[in-house]
Amino acid sequence: MKWDARKIIEDELNKQSIFKNRESLMPEYIPEALPHRENELKLLASYFRHLIANPGSMSQRVLIVGRVGTGKTTLMRTFATNLTSIAREKGLSFDYIHVNCYKNRSLFGIVRDIALQLGLSVPHRGLSSKEIMDAVISFLDEGDRYTLIVFDDFHYFVNIAGKEAVYFITRAYEAFHESKRLNMVFVSTDTNIIGVFDPVTESYLNRYIIKLQPYTSSQLLDILRYRASLAFHEDAYDEKLLELIAEYEGVDRSGEGNARHALTILLTAGDIAEKEGAGRISIEHVRKAITIHDRSKEIERINDVLRYSSLHELLLLLSIIRLLRKKNDKEVEMGEVEDEYRLLCNIHGEIPRSHTQLYEYTRNLSKTGVINAVTKNMGNRGRTTLISIPYGPLEELEKYVTTLVTKKREIEY
Ligand SMILES: Nc1ncnc2c1ncn2[C@@H]1O[C@H](COP(=O)(O)OP(=O)(O)OP(=O)(O)O)[C@@H](O)[C@H]1O
Fold first, then answer.
1. Distances in Å between the alpha carbon of 24 and those of 16, 27, 228, 238, 281?
2. 336-355 tens-digit pLDDT
3. Which residues on neighbouring strands pair with residue 275, listed in sequence order?
4. 260 lines ligand 1 (CB under 6 A)
5. Which atom of ligand 1 lies at the shortest distance from residue 28's CA?
6. For the complex shown, is ipTM > 0.90?
């Protein structure tokens, strides 16, 4: 038969996909409905009632805690975007700002991000956090504006920026809040985070805390039903598949109660069926997806952490992985990691970062649980940092981090 590129492409394009809207199963998709989070949504509305009823009467601060995949980010985005449109319909100038504290881990980074999201222009250097915050408050005052700032993944900021920086943000209502235009929500997976606030803030937040419980299988089943109806054609799946996933992941069935996991498994099962040209998803496709999911659990965990890492932080991590594999050892020394890192930089045509910067990256990777780093006294050889990675397999991790490096380079160049 004649080899016909056009026909191959056309056949593929004309193939009926089982997906109606694959994107609606992606983690960043914001669904219109959040089954089993109605009460939390009501609670948020009651805490922020003043913003609509009597703007400027108070500055509210709320803490949201819950394990990974319990819907914290989606709940906040849903609440804040709806509140914004209600406020604007009432003629209020209202801004919702979502600060990602993994991406912005320093006080300056966070304050600058708030200013930028409000449309202010802020130089990279030259201004202090206090000066930028002053500019933010003046902007709000002059425009008679109100704002809700959501600090997502706040625990990263706490761990890396330290207590004083937390104090600056959480007590900003005293220093800057005379006008009562700032409202804040702190979101965290760390259920003990309340302990990092100063005593006054802690006792305040204790009254305004919303705890999201991990989902049970029957709750996950409702979520899966809803999301599957958005993502797939009706005849591409059936209830049994969803039940299998819900039972695997439900917190009452020894799963983690993580909606992200459940949705990822459904998406993977759909992808496998699509790749096989099966026309519909089978129980076997779901089983395969669960196996893949089990294998990549650790990688998925660090995926959240590494999403916003800089190119050189990733290159350093890649050096650690490569060296651990090459030496087939359980730990490696910082000095040899730096040599490997310089080698990698050379291969990629990158200028290596300084020792101090690398030390900073190591600290961050260790604090976020991607690596273990301990300083050891080596007798007359002085002190050294020993680095290990307690999960794996490293072969898969290397592939994964290499992909991240490639993607990062594509974005940067
Ligand atoms: N009640 C729900 N209904 C529908 N989808 C949900 C629900 N809860 C969570 N999800 C979905 O599960 C995924 C994870 O949710 P989300 O990112 O909000 O969780 P999270 O608690 O913020 O997790 P992380 O701590 O990892 O940021 C998203 O795709 C979200 O749309």
1. 18, 8, 9, 18, 17
2. 999 999 999 999 899 999 99
3. none
4. yes
5. 29
6. yes
Instruction: Establish whether 335 is an annotated binding residue.
Output: no
> Ligand 1: does its nearest atom lie under 6 Å from the Cβ of 73?
yes
Is 62 contained in some domain? yes
Position 332 in a domain: yes
The domain boundary, picked from 265, 295, 325, lies at 295
Query: Do 308 and 259 belong to one domain?
Result: no
The predicted-structure confidence for 135-146, as pLDDT tens digits, reads as follows 999 999 999 999
| Total count of domains within the chain | 3
Strand order in the sheet with 332-333: 332-333, 383-388, 372-377
164 plus 204 within the same structural domain? yes
For ligand 1, whether the C-beta of 77 sits within 6 Å is no
Interval between CA 215 and ligand 1 midpoint (Å) = 10
What is the model's pLDDT at position 178?
63
Token pair 């059936």 is found at 238
Q: Is the pLDDT of residue 177 over 60?
A: no
Q: What is d(CA 139, CA 154) in angstroms, rounded to the nearest whole number? A: 25
Q: Is 74 in the pocket of ligand 1 (CB under 6 A)?
A: yes
Residue 80 tokens, joined: 């804040």
Helical (H) or strand (E) element with 28: none
Phi, psi (deg, nearest 5) at residue 13? -65, -30
Cα 309 to Cα 74: distance, rounded to the nearest angstrom: 22
Question: Are 192 and 52 in the same domain?
Answer: yes
Protein residue with its CA nearest to atom 3 in ligand 1: 34
- Domain hosting 371: range is 302-412
What's the whole-number average pLDDT of the chain?
Answer: 90
Span 22-33, mean pLDDT? 90
Residues 23, 147: contact at Cβ < 8 Å? no
User: Measured from the CB, is residue 66 less than 6 Å from ligand 1?
Assistant: yes
**Domain containing 187 — which CATH number?**
3.40.50.300
Q: Are residues 137 and 222 in the same domain?
A: no
Taking the centre of ligand 1 as the mean of its atom positions, its distance from the CA of residue 374, in whole angstroms, is 34
The amino acid sitting at 30 is I
Q: Is 71 annotated as a binding residue?
A: yes
Please report the atom of ligand 1 found closest to the CA of residue 37: 1
Q: Are residues 381 and 260 in the same domain?
A: no
